[in-house]
Structure formats: structure tokens, C-alpha cells
Give the backbone structure.
Amino acid sequence: MAPSRLRKVPEGVSLTSKEVAWIRRKLGREPNPVEWGMFDIMYSEHCSYKSSRPVLKILPSKGPKVIVGPGYDSGIVDLGDGYVVAFKVESHNHPSAIEPYNGAATGIGGIVRDILCVGARPVALLDSLRFGSLQSPHSRWLFRYVVKGIADYGNCIGVPTVAGEVEFDQSFEKNCLVNVACVGIARKEDIILAEFKNPGDIIVLIGGSTGRDGIHGVTFASKTLSEESEADRPAVQIGDPFMKKLLIEAVLEALKTGFVSGVKDLGGGGLTCATSEMSAKGGVGVEINLDRVHVREEGMNAYELMLSESQERMLFAVKPEGLKTVLEVLEKYEIPYSVLGKVVEGGLLKADFKGETVINVPAELVARAPIIRRKAKKPLESQDKLKTLKPSQPENLRKTFLELLSSQNISSREWVYRQYDHEVGVRTVVKPGDGDATVLRLIDVPKAVAVTFDANSRHSALDPFSGHAGALAEAARNLVCVGAEPLAYTDCCNFGNPEKPEVFWQFKRGIEGLASMSKGLKIPCVGGNVSFYNEDEETGLAVKPTTTIVMVGLIEKLDYITTMSLKEAGDALIIVGTTLPEMGGSEYYHEILKFNGGEPPKASVRREKATIKTVLKAIRKGLVKAAHDCSKGGLAAALAVMAVKGKHGLNVNLERIPSLKVGRLDELLFSESYARVLLEVPKRKVEKVLKIASKSGASASQIGEVTDREAFTLKLKGKPVIDCSLSELEEAWLTPIPKALEGSPA
Amino acid sequence: MVRIAVIRFPGSNCDLDVVHVLKNVLGVEASLVWHKEFKALGYDGVVLPGGFSYGDYLRSGAIAARSPALEHVKVMADNGLPVLGICNGFQILVEAGILPGALLPNENLKFICKWVCIRCDNGWTAFTWGIPEGKVLHIPIAHKEGRYFNDEAELERLSRKRMIVFRYTDWKGEAVPEANPNGSVRNIAGICNEKGNILGLMPHPERASEELLSPNRNADGLLLFKSMAEYVKR
């Protein structure tokens, strides 16, 4: 073929000229339209990770407890006693921005299937949400319906939604971020992988019928949203949680028969993705007949059948001798299915339709798109932002403090988690809002896992390296605060257009930061997800770089479980870690002083290690009654939440707080320096805790005490700086979100 | 040994939780039974667990109420055996006409998952005879359609025949409006039949049956299952 013809991109295909040339050369012929469609979706950023793969490689993914690392449907980590935990995160940003209810709901549906695919029972859901300002009616609409979508779907399938976070920032106004994660528990011997292994195995498509919905959903997710995106609404899938619930029980029962040798969910890329990836992973081929697919619409062609992203479907490879048994399970639950074909030797993906062979390509060529090395360039503006002069301190710190406590990113998230069934499954020991992480016990052994979902986009916007490292460290701190030892994490990267060198630089620096903290704390990465093109086509503005972290920890003894509420008057308050004047990207600068510059917190492996070690050791020795890390809103906000949750007052002497270079009270109170944790400790155990801290290399100091009065008092050398009643704190912290949403019909 | 059946309808999702509590916490024999296979014979009691049977399509509980399993549930009920409907199970019993009234969407039109207080107003049912009347139980709710409704005449009858078993209250046991999470008429959280061997309630006793899971480290919900098992033994 002539080079010019070789590089000519066929109409309707969104591949680059290099990619089409590569496909033609490898295949040695012109792909037919169905095959072009398959390459098109599999080479999309969403399915192929073609831009991100070379960068993500630097994340450490090995550890003594890692059973399955990146590259499979979910990461799997050993819990001991024959149990494993599987978890996975995914973004559903683009569909949620267009159709928040179904976009978010099908995000939950997809992530649940990923856990089911490895043979684990889904036991928890988590959600990390980002919207524009709460003042914007559009953002309130998105927020309300995303939460409703998650609630209606998650509640119905009986998997509790137990943890998450919500952040509001202007940069998410047009491009909201909806990251969802699922956690599953399995016996080690029940783990199964998404591979076709044995030629001769029968391929069965199970679950919902195939329709024209969601065609090209992944290509839609691999471009920026624009005015025309509204027209892409048919690319958003529609969820059916009832079918999903049947699917969960039927799949788990079918796997128990021992006759299923491979499972994969049909999510992005539909049948194309499932058949090509499972064949490529197992090094085998597959032959299917598309006439057999059970459909919900008449007259679908091969292209539509291969590319549909209809929900609630899964693909099984079944040993021939067990086919009858497996089909009986499906029939019991009234799950529709179709026997599509079989696994064959070789590596070809072959499909027949209406008596003709419509697909005949190497599975490997479809499943493994060549990587693209993107340019990374440091943006100029990020330098200047840091150098701007500091804004001055407000006169009335008490008033400022109450405003901060009621700001959109600090106030209570109860409005969200009240709508989620977070109790079903009888595992939830530490409930949402009660601890820094949620704790789920295992039913059969006296152990528990802790889960948390964290990110900090404002810190990352000012310094992607430190912001990402800090987010990882915060996740670890949150786990430690409930008494868990961090085991592993998975990350979900949300960025703008990677073809822009400045955006790619943010991504690269962010992952480098993540890798450095990950190595330092020895917490491996077991999987992840990347969502690019989160930017507004009109303005060219990208979302703030946001990598959300789902981290799982192990609680070896149930006695270690700790919450954040203050427990008893007379106990001492201790802070572990040093406060620095690191105000950049803080909620205080952003919401109160309306200032976008300043130095963001610097992540330090040494300081994080020291703090984590101190807190974990103190908790395990039974010295700690409450623990809470300092994050958004700093020390002052953290103290307030502990007081409100525990309905106890407190007295704190600010001069006792270990700090470095802090020259102003507002900095001491509201800095978001990392590696800090507040502890409630009985008075007679204070010395022990301080000793542990000094041995671990952490600064720590007794800063005050818990009282049984109504007063929340922060003093400097005896003089009150902030003096509020608990009911004032409650009003400020608990009411803003319900007021914003219920007070306004949107 | 006491044998309790827990019926699984398509979409039930608290079935395994109830089985866990009966088996591992209480130590009675509990069988998870697929609704189409459920027969009255051979069980001392039956639980209709919570969840979203048939995806709540049509109305909560409306389709499951037409399952042949409900005929067997009626046989057991007529024989005086204990029948417990929790959350969606309560909705099914109401839809099947086994318990009176209706369960409407919550007043705020949202799903609510929350620990609440309920007061036991009748200690003579198969599920409460181990609970002192007036005792306040701490227990979670998780539903979108749990607002109990009935007309005044019926409510008078329920009251007179002591069929109102649980009411939402504050910590002191006062059935004040602020303690009513979903707008139920007369703060009703659970009702029984005249004989007291059929109970339906919206809160989830199986989620409050172990100290570890309760924010106040009690296990109030277990009292219902204990009473049920003891009632069978008598």
C-alpha cells in the first residue's frame, strides 16, 4: 500500500494516521468497517491507556501481600486467614456531566462487575465527587442527581456505600468528576481471573440484553465535552440495578460450581473489549456467532452488537462438562444468556454474523494499542502563583473560623451519606462520618478492613508532585487514625487533554509524587484508572489535576478500632506533627480570603512515616480514645469536628502547638500542613504517647484537654482567640449543604 | 432445634444478614430458601428479609406479594407460627394483605439510612415477649418507602387491639414529631396482627444484633430474634 493510503484515516474513525497505518501494516489488509469500529474503541484513551501507561509504570506495585496487581479487573491483597480483599476504582465523569443520574448509577454498576469478575462478593462502595461551586444551580443539579443515582443503584443491589468525599471548586463547573470504587471480599482459593485459558471452553454471554445504548461510550469519554455533547446523551448507558442484583447472586453461585474458568464484565467497549482482552491475556483465540446474542432491539448489525455498551452483561468461559450446571444457575435467577461460541487455539478473534465472517483479527492487535509518548512541559504560571505576597489576617478570627467551618469543602457531608444504605451486609463498624476511614469487619474472622477515598485538587493544582504525594499520605493517615495498617491503594487520575504538554506535565509530575510517597511508605499500587479530556472545549480550561486514592488497610484486632469523636472530659489532647505556614490551596485562602496563590504544603516521607508510626503504635497499645487527622481547614477545623461529633467541649493552648516558621495565628489555625494527627489520650497515658512519638521521630505535644462544658476555647497565652459554644459549631458545620440543596428548588 | 426459614426473593438483599444473625449470633438453625422453593412444612418460623424485591418495580413489595411463597407464609401464620417481615419484608406483608395499612414514600422523598430509637408498646407478641413494654431500642432504618399509613378508624382498631408494636421516639421514649424519621402516622415503626404472631417493621433488627455494629455498643435488635426463637420453643 502506498504510504499516503496507508495513513489515510477512514471516515468516522477517530484514530490517528499513525495508528491506522500501524493497524494496516500489522494486519496486512484493510480492516472492514466492523473491525475499524473495534480498533477505534480499543485504541481510545479510555480502553488503551496509551498515553498514561509509560508514566504509570513507575508506581511500585509489588509487596508481600499483593496477590494481583495492576492490569486486571481489580487489585487483590491478602488479609491472612485465607481471606483476600479486592478493590478497584473507576471514573464516570463524562456520562455524569451529561446525564448525572444514569451516569453515576452506571458507574456503580460497572465497578461492581469489576469486583465480581475476580470472584469476590462486593461488600462496599465508595464515591469521590467533584462539582463546581455549590452556589451554581448547574452544580447543585449535578450534585443532587449524582448522589441520587448512586443511592438508588447502590441501595438496590445491597452493597453499602460506606465512604467517600465531595469537593467543590470552580474548575469542575463544566466537568464534574465522579469516581467510584468497590471493595470485595473473597476466600483466597475462590479468586478467578479475566482470561480465556482452555481451548474448547464455551463462551456464554449473560445478563441484560444488548441494545443500541452506549455505543461509542468510551470514545465519547476520550474527548473533551462541548456544546454538542448534549447530543451524545445516547452514549450514556442506562442502569438496571435489579438485574445487577440478580447477576451478583447468579455469578457468585455459578462460580461456586467450579465450572467457570474465566469471567469478564462488559463495560466500556462491550463485547469487543471483553473478547479481545480475555483472549490476549490467555494467549488463545475465540470464535463467536453474533446471531446468538440476545438483543432488545430488532435489526442490529454486527458493528452495533460488537460495540454496544448495554449494561448488566458479563462474559463467562465455561468448561464444556459443566455447561448444563452453570446454565441451570442462570435459569434459577431468570438471567438471560446466550451461548456465543468457544475458545480456540491460536490468537485470532473471529466472529460470524448471518453466515458470513465479519471479524477475523488477532486479539492481541485489538487489545494492545501502541503507546503514545506525550510531551510534558511545565506551565509558566505555576511559578508566579507561588510568589504572590501573603494576604493580611482578618480582624475577627472567631467569625472567620465559623465561616470556614461552614464553607462548602469543610461542612458535614451527612446530607450525602444519609441517602446511602451504609449498613447493609452487617459489616460497617465505623460508619461514614464517624472516623477518618470507614471500618468493615469480616464476618467469619475477628478482623476488619478500613477503607478511605482521598484527593486534594487545590494542592495539586499548585504543585502536582507534592499534592499527589500528600493525597496518598492523607489516605494512609486516615487509615491509621481508625487503627488500620495501610496495605495497598488504587488511584484514579482525572486530568485535562493529555495532548497539551502542560496538562501532561501535571499528570507526569503527579504520578512521580505518588510514586515517591508510595515507595517511601512502602504502600504498593494495585490498580488504577485514568480519565483524560476533562476540560471545557469552549474555554479550554481543564479541571484541577485530581488523582483520587482508594486505600485499604487491615485491622488485625477489633480492639484497635478508633473513631474521631471526643469521648470523655478530663482527657488530654495531643497533636502529632509540625505545623508550617503552608497556606497555598487551603480552604481558608480560597474560600475566605479568595486568594489562589501561596505555597502549598510540602509532602515529606520522613514526617509522614514518623506520624503514622506514632499513631498506629499508640492506638495498638490502647492509649488512644479518639484520632483525627488535620486536613481541610487545618487544626482548628479538625478540633471542631472532634468536639461536635463527641458533644464535648475543649480547651486548647495554642502556644503549645509544635510549629516551624509560623508567624501568624491564622496560619497556625488554618494551615493544611501534612503529617498531623490529633489524639485524645487519657491524662495518665500522655507521657507514654509522647515517648512513642519521640522514638518514632515525630514532634508531639499535649495542647489541651477535653471538657464536659459547652465551650470550645482556643487560647493563646491565656487569652481566648476563638471561643464558641458547641451549638454554634454544630449550626456552622452541619447545616450548609442541606440549606444549599433543600432551600433551593433546582 | 429451632428451624427458621429466610426467604430470598429476587432482589432481597438483607437475607444473608438475617441468616448470619440467626445462625452465628443466636445459634439457631436458619435456612436461606429461594422463594419458588419455599414450603411451609418443616419450619418453626419464617423471616421475609429487607431489600428491593423485584427492584421495587410497580410498588415496593407488590410483585413479591404475588409469589407462591406467600401462600405458604399464610399457612404458617394461620398455624400460629411466627412470621417476621423486615423493611421490604414488611412492605411485602402489607401488599399481600397479611398486615393492614400501607407504606408510602418517606416524607422527604429520599432514602434515609440512620440509627433511630423505637419504643416497644406491646410486650406480648411472638417477637417482643422478651422485651419490657416501654423499653427504647436503638436500631437503624434504611428505606425510601417506610411511611406507615392507615385511616383513623383502622388506627383506632390497631391501637385498641394493641397491634402497634413499635413507635419512633426520642431517647426518653417520647413519640415526639422530631423523632419521626419518615412521617409515619402516629410514629408507627412496626405493627402486628391481632394474634401477635406476625410482625412487620421498617427498622432492621439484624443490623443491631451485635454490640460491635451498634454506635452505642448494645444489641437491641437481637431481642426480637431471641423472643422469636424462645416463642417457638414454648
Remarks:
- Chain B has a mean pLDDT of 97.
- The two ends of chain B are 12 Å apart (CA to CA).
- The interface with chain A takes residues 10-14, 16-17, 20-21, 24, 34, 50-52, 54-57, 110-114, 140, 142, 144, 204, 206-207, 209-210, 212-213, 215 of chain B (CB under 8 Å).
- Residues 3-233 of chain B form a domain with the Rossmann fold fold (CATH 3.40.50.880).
